[in-house]
Every structure is written in structure tokens, then in C-alpha cells.
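Input (structure):
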């Protein structure tokens, strides 16, 4: 029963992820998402049929592995709510730092992270392949909770 639930979730998450990212190589498959959800150190926050966040946590640090909001629900506060819920969860377990990386051309996400107090601490040059000859940087961000 539990396996069926996470398998169903992985399919829902993959569908949202696919619709949320333009570049094919940035889209997570349901198989990959399922492998994440099976990991005991991985958790998620899901706003049904709108968006989700998958994150890992170990002791004092957490990492947002991926977050996706369906385009028709962007700029409606869904991402903000998810990240505020994540902060509450992390505070409850005394996890005081959260990290993420975001493509430098994902301006909507960068604006959201800035708004919530995430700070840039590094850049991975030409990290994401947008097309055969086009790459963008990954911006590394973190927030102390």
C-alpha cells in the first residue's frame, strides 16, 4: 500500500515537473522521483495538483532537491507557502540551514528565494545545458533558519 502511494506520487510529481520546466534535460522522470521518495532521508511537501518540493535533511542541514509549481499556479503564493512550510518543518527538527541550486535563467524562482531571504553563496559555471550549445550557470543559495 505504501509503495503504491509513493509510486502514484512519483507519477504526479513527474507530470508537474515536466510541465514546469522547458528544458527536456531538466525534467525528472517518475522513476527518478520514485527513487528519491524511497530514500528515508528524503521528504516532500505537496500542494495537490499545484506543486511540490522534494528535500533531504540530515542533522543540521537540508537541501531542496527540486521544486516545481505548475505554470498556471505561479505568482499565486504556492511556492511561498511550500517554502514557509519547509522552514517550519526544519525548525521543528532543529535543522538550521537549507541549501538549493537554481538555474540562473529561472528568474521567477530566484525572485521567490530572494524574497524569502535566501542568499547566493556560489555559482557553478555553465552547469545546466539548455540546448546543445547553450548552457547557464547554477546559482547556489542558502538560508539560515
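Output (sequence):
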Amino acid at each position: 500500500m505504501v509503495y503504491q502511494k509513493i509510486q502514484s506520487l512519483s507519477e504526479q510529481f513527474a507530470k508537474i515537473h515536466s510541465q514546469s520546466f522547458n528544458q527536456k534535460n531538466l525534467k525528472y522522470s517518475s522513476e527518478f522521483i520514485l527513487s528519491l521518495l524511497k530514500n528515508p532521508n528524503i521528504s516532500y511537501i505537496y500542494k495537490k495538483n499545484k506543486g511540490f518540493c522534494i528535500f533531504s535533511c540530515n542533522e543540521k542541514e537540508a537541501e531542496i532537491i527540486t521544486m516545481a509549481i505548475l505554470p498556471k499556479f505561479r505568482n499565486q503564493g504556492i511556492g511561498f507557502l511550500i517554502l514557509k512550510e519547509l522552514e517550519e518543518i526544519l525548525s521543528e527538527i532543529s535543522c538550521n540551514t537549507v541549501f538549493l541550486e537554481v538555474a540562473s535563467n529561472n528568474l521567477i524562482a530566484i525572485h521567490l528565494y530572494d524574497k524569502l531571504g535566501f542568499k547566493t553563496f556560489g555559482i557553478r559555471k555553465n552547469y545546466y545545458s539548455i540546448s546543445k550549445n547553450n548552457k547557464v550557470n547554477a546559482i547556489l543559495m542558502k538560508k539560515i533558519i
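Notes: The chain has a mean pLDDT of 92. Helices lie at 2-20, 30-37, 78-92, 107-115.
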